[in-house]
Amino acid sequence: MRKIAVLVVFLLALGGCDARAPLVEVRAIAAGVPSLAPFFAEDSGLGRDARVRSRPVPSGLQQGDTPGLYGGTEQPKICDVERLKRFLTAPRNAGKARAWATALELRTDQIPGYLDRLTPVLLRHDTLALNHDYKKGKAVPFRALLQAGIAVLVDEKGHPSVKCSCGNPLLPFEGDTGRISVTFEDGNEKWQGYDRAEVVVVRPASRELERIALVDVEDAERGIRRPVGTTGEADSRFDATERRAVPRLAGTTFGEASRRLADAGLAIAYGSEGLPPDRARVTATEPGAGAELPFGAYVTVRVATPPASPAPPAGSGPTSTGGGPTGAGPTSTGATSQEPPSQRPRSSTAPPGSESPSSSAAPPGSGSPAVSTPPRSSAPPTVTSAPPTVTSSPPSATGTPPKGTSAPPRTTSPPPRPSSPPPQASSQPPRTTDPPPQTTSTPPQTTSSPPESGSAGSAPVTTAPATSATP
């Protein structure tokens, strides 16, 4: 039995039954196949899909401003935005409009303006997204794989927002693209050219776009420039075979390199699994600067690995000279995976390098500054009461000071020692006449340590016998 148990554990380990996240179920949505739970009927003429073969890409993460990410056609109205607007604003569809707006985090009165900013395009890659069905008056989300050729509306940052044929809202896909399980059902048969390793996820661009550079799905040598918020009536054509020079990018940030390449009509690829941070510094490109490529070709950029931020020394406070700008601020490194404000020093009440009143602690030997700012002083609390007792005690008091407080009294007690005994001795009789209990116990001690009867704290009085016995 023991051997069988060991064998089962071994087989489970080989089969991948470990601590990794489970597979995420994704529903395949084929081009031209009607949805079973659409917001609006597929035959209403809201949009028309096309036959497009999915194209492989260097990375599964694509940004919304990537040239050639989407396709177009000279045929107008692949998405009828005006008809969708009429549907969503019609009183009879008020329930659907509320559910539709809720899915996109909008108010119903924002729907017309939102639709006016969307742009119709055709997918050129099998694309993962968070789709929504309309069931029982609500928008029900589900992870979907949209086949290349499906018509969608994209927002100002190039992210798919609406599936045209049925009006279903779309949101970004969240999850590990390498841990998906795609199911083909409800008439969505596995299409030719499908490869799970080549699916993409679109991330919104880092800027709002003015126009989107498309590839004509009927003629790959022809490009289409479509202004954002238009449906094809303002398109302009360009030659997609024209060669474009790779700009010089070494030393720029990843975000800047991405924008420069997009402006040149080239796509960006990167030598890492995840999308590098925008502030990461580009060290090299492949091919290098000056190389000429056709529209939409990918340029691989390599970025510097962000250095680890040094931990602040233990016990450092606002007065530490190293707690200023070093290692903080946007100019600390060229490649960071986090926003610089999260790495700033904890002392944010004063500008870096300046000292606040609480940070300018007095030296250990001074008396008055330490008393004026006791909460921020580095000395123990007993130091504040020690100076009065030490200044009035005889020289032998240095032999038995309270623990941990011997250093401060030594620096403050020498000046008053020569002059303090005579005045205080002469004033001793009036003090002994006071009724407090402390005076009743101190008369025998006044001959050897008179000043202690006037001490403010009770702890120094208890040490008086020890000081008088030392001589």
What's the topology here?
Elements: H1 2-14, E1 24-29, E2 61-63, E3 70-72, H2 81-89, H3 94-103, H4 111-116, E4 119-123, E5 127-135, E6 138-146, E7 151-154, E8 160-163, E9 180-183, E10 200-203, E11 211-216, E12 222-227, E13 236-239, E14 244-245, H5 254-263, E15 267-270, E16 282-286, E17 292-293, E18 298-303, H6 368-372, H7 386-392, H8 407-412, H9 421-426, H10 428-432, H11 437-441, H12 458-462, H13 464-469
Parallel strand pairs: 1-6, 1-9, 2-10, 3-11, 5-10, 15-18
Antiparallel strand pairs: 3-4, 4-7, 5-6, 7-8, 11-12, 12-13, 14-17, 16-18
Proportion of beta-strand residues: 15-25%
Taking the alpha carbons of the first and last residues, their distance comes to 86 Å
Structural class: alpha/beta
Q: How large is the count of helical segments?
A: 13
Number of strands: 18
- Low-confidence sequence ranges: 14-18, 315-471
How would a crystallographer describe the biggest sheet?
7 strands, mixed
Overall pLDDT: 73
**Rounded radius of gyration (Å):** 39 Å
Instruction: Give the fraction of residues assigned to helices.
Output: 10-25%
Globally, the shape reads globular
Biased composition (Low complexity): 328-410, 439-471
Protein name: PASTA domain-containing protein
Biased composition (Pro residues): 411-424
Organism: Streptomyces olindensis
